Amino acid sequence: MQLHINLCKLLSWLTLAIVCLLVTSSYAFAFEANAKAAYVVDMTTGTVLISKNADTPLPPASMSKLMTLYVAFEFIKAGQLKLDERLPVSQHAQDYGGSTMFLTTRDRVSVEDLLRGIIVLSGNDACAVIAEALSPDGTETGFAQLLTQRAQQMGMTNSVFKNSNGWPAKGHRMSLRDLALLTKRLISDFPEFYPMFSQKEFLFDGRAPANSLNRNPLLGLGVGADGLKTGHTQEAGYGLVGSAKQGDRRLIFVLSGLTSAGERANEAETIVNWAFRQFSLKSFGKKDTNIALAPVWNGSSSNVGLALSKDLDVLVPVLGNTPVKFIVEYESPIPAPVQAGQEIGTLIVKAGDMDDVTIPLLANTTIPMGGFFVRLMTAAKSLLSKITNGPKVAL
User: How does strand 303-308 pair with strand 108-110?
Assistant: First the structure.
């Protein structure tokens, strides 16, 4: 039997400071993105603030270079690629048009310079050099297949890669939700490399003074922006995968299909300011706080405490009057043995029209199997219940 428990009705020993709070409302959700597709998520809580065509596979242009960077970081972390390693430049890499580091086949370029060339200069040639070095068959096509496979493994189900850099190609697609997931993984999996995304200028060998500045329009504006990647092709329009951090909150935003670099800059800055001003982070409980008791079947104890698996921080709009509700769900009774830290329930947080937030609930202690007499009493209670509640015969 699955139990649903409203936290407002739980035992008085609950240490959650506030259970039902009037917050939120439709006012904060009045924002309409101009971009053809937009996805904005509060990384701290996982709350989605804007979702417009977020699951539609679209041409990602240079924003797809983030996947090449992710896989390169994986190879470096695994010890299969070194930052000071110098890689050759093929004719294929040299021949790429668009954004470039102006590499030639006479070059051997360090991996670190190639990574900065991709992040800051958006070098298509740099991507191709990395791709051919890491490809299972030594070709960019083979590397693109590797990217697609890795993306699927990471849960990016609307992503297919035909090259390493987003150069227009039939079938090369990513959804904005996938790009946001990838961004979250870049930030959380590679904190040692993430600061590279905030680099404003890279003067590689003095070759391209006109292409030395990071195209991210939000860097240096004082809004907390510290990455990640712009994109533009005629088919895709102007796009941006960005992230910004203010205080304890981090925002991830993805835009696509804007008509100009200026519109992209204005839209991105407006969204960042809106998301940080209109929403605030509320703490309702700390990790390991017990919030409920659940009955245990055949255990040495008849109940086990359900504890928060992480801090219960909820993003709520600043204005409004919609209540925040908390619901505990678990299968009852929980069979012994129970191990401390075992996931045995879920806390669901509902705040108005916002997406539900779910937090796993863990057993706060170990409950071994009960002794012979405990099991005997349990069996007797079960038999009595069947007799008492057995099928009724119509007379």
Answer: unpaired
Query: pLDDT band for position 338 (50/70/90)?
Result: very high
Instruction: State the Cα angle at 12 between 311 and 329, rounded to 5°.
Output: 55
Q: Residue 101 in 3-state DSSP?
A: coil
Which pair of tokens denotes residue 51?
């979702």
CB atoms < 10 A from the CB of 272, how many?
Answer: 22
User: Where does the chain have alpha helices with state H?
Assistant: 65-77, 91-94, 111-119, 124-134, 140-153, 176-189, 261-278, 372-388
DSSP string, 288-330: T-EEEEEEEESBSSSEEEEEESS-EEEEEESS--EEEEEEEEE
Same domain for 200 and 292: no
The percent of residues above 70 in pLDDT, for the chain, comes to 85
The first and second tokens of residue 59, run together, are: 């041409």
User: Are residue 59 and residue 16 in the same domain, yes or no?
Assistant: no
pLDDT in tens, 214-259: 999 999 999 999 999 999 999 999 999 999 999 999 999 999 999 9
Alpha-carbon span 395 to 374, nearest angstrom? 38
Residue 189 lies in a domain: yes
Q: 369 and 346 in contact (C-beta within 8 Å)? A: no
Predicted confidence (pLDDT) per residue in 316-326, tens digit: 888 866 678 88
8-state DSSP, 10: S
Distance CA 316, CA 350 (A): 10
Helices (H), 65-223: 65-77, 91-94, 111-119, 124-134, 140-153, 176-189
Per DSSP, the three-state class of 72 is helix
Q: Given this model, what pLDDT does residue 321 score?
A: 66
The total of structural domains in the chain comes to 2
Q: Are residues 203 and 65 in the same domain?
A: yes
List the catalytic residues: 62, 65, 122
Mean pLDDT throughout 260-280?
96
